[in-house]
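ok so for the tutorial part 2 we go from a plain amino acid sequence to predicted structure tokens. step 1 is just haveing the sequence, like this:
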Amino acid sequence: MPVTQKATPGPSCTMTNASEMLVNAIVGYENRSVFNPYRDICCEHDVKNAPDIRTSNLKRILSAAQDGCDALWVGRDLGHRGGRRTGLALTDDAHYHRHLGRWGLSAEPPTTDFGTSEVTASVIWGELSRIDARIFLWNVFPFHPHLPENELSNRPHTRSERAVGLQILKALLSELRPAHLVGIGNDAVSALMSLDSDAPVHQLRHPSYGGANIFRAQVRELYGLTNLDEQLNLL
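step 2 — the prediction. this is what the tokens look like for a chain of 235 residues:
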């Protein structure tokens, strides 16, 4: 079973005071049953400076998104095969470089056994690859909640953890001011609806538990995409 260590935060980049405070709050979060990828090191999978890599990526993407954010896509929390490793919401190793590339960025992987894939991330990125828009990915609870006896497990965040996540999400909305909010799953939609935002909230079925095809159809309807296979069948 992996053992989590604490890392000393690396040097900060130039950011607005509000953004710096937001990132500091994220990096500083501690919970015995939660892995914070911007602070903690997984001794089984991480390189020694993994938290620094993930924090640097977060800062740079946040900075890039402040130049314009078309939409904020929000899931529930990080999974052990995805965001726990990459530090990027709704993103596994297989889509790590693609996520950074959408913002004109690149970075070394934060894991030693880079290459793990996650079904949910694969479905989501299958649709993101069809969309030419500045979409910032996040989670209601932007950390990895796990069972106390198994760090490489997933569990829903608790009510108190949700309160922390909502505070962070509210600050993120204030910084990015996205034109649209997209909730992936009921938990995310409920969280977005509870916030005081002028941006419209759109609901998508979560891809897990048989929801992948519904998710794909809803994304394509929301973004006005046409399935190329359907076009070809009409020829």
